[in-house]
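Project channel, design review

CF: Before we commit to the Limosilactobacillus fastidiosus constructs, I'd like one complete example in the thread so the newer folks can see what an input/output pair looks like. Taking Putative gluconeogenesis factor.
RD: sounds good, go ahead.
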Amino acid sequence: MFHKPKIVVIGGGTGLPVVLRGLRDQNADITAVVTVADDGGSSGILRNYINVVPPGDIRNVLVALSELPKLQREIFQYRFKTTDQFLAGHAIGNLIISALSEMQGDIFDAVQELSAMMEIRGHVFPVSDEPLTLNAEFTDGSTLSGESEITHAHKQIKRVWVTPSNDQDGHEAKAVPEVIKAIENADQIVLGPGSLFTSILPNLMIHDVAKAVCESKAEVVYICNIMTQKGETDHFTDADHVRVLNQHLGKNFIDTVFVNIEPVPDNYINFKEWNEISQPVGHDFQGLRKQGCRVISSNFLQLKDNGAFHDRDKVVNELMNRLHEVHD
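CF: and here is what came back for Putative gluconeogenesis factor:
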């Protein structure tokens, strides 16, 4: 009997749904583990007003894995215009997730309910049942709390950690048990693509998630960003990205790194529109190998809308190749 490979994808932001859309059409059992430390935009407003886990990243992942017709997915993603005052900037999906969270009294159950309604192929798990706050220490010694504050500081980050947002008694952030079980049973664990400090690490800074990933027998694949981010990863090489991940978890746990080697054409990027990015990530293959990584370097680049993105099909093909190589 054919064993459906179990792939766990961990992250947040805009990169995660891109990979998930491609994996959805593969013969694999997909679990998306989504950060709950976002506090910007519509997610941040809803989080502050009704004390729910921020829904934005969860919404994008649900749509990426949904089998519903295009119109229903577009309605779920629809964002009210800024002239709409009361509803300005809110996505319909964010409001639905928030409403279901109140009805169920629990974000995890709400997302499972919504997964059934949206005909999800796979599983979508918020990493934690409670909103988490991302904290950062910068290289100048200062600290900040809040993902959007950290992003907009445009300062070099030394380390990040998470704390429960409603932390009255100093308790530790905990993952939902289903997340740990999915990681333990995974054949492949995929990190990214996404912001290193604000999309990927918030998940891994939950102690039991870090422990499960480090102890997993699955191949851990990191999809390295194509462009650096202002303040966060200025002048970073691919080896620097991996070094930060390994340092935060206290061991060299990344097995394989996907690195784009196709040059981004000069003058193609519209830095006004894509104002969080700086320049293409530099290469340090020796630095990667020193950390025990297998390096898959290829043309993973897709140019569109004057921005540089990962080519979904090429990334997914390579992920499936890795699975077959490891398990054949």
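RD: helpful, thanks. The domain at 6-38+123-327 is CATH 3.40.50.10680 (Rossmann fold).
CF: Confidence is low (pLDDT under 50) at residues 40-51.
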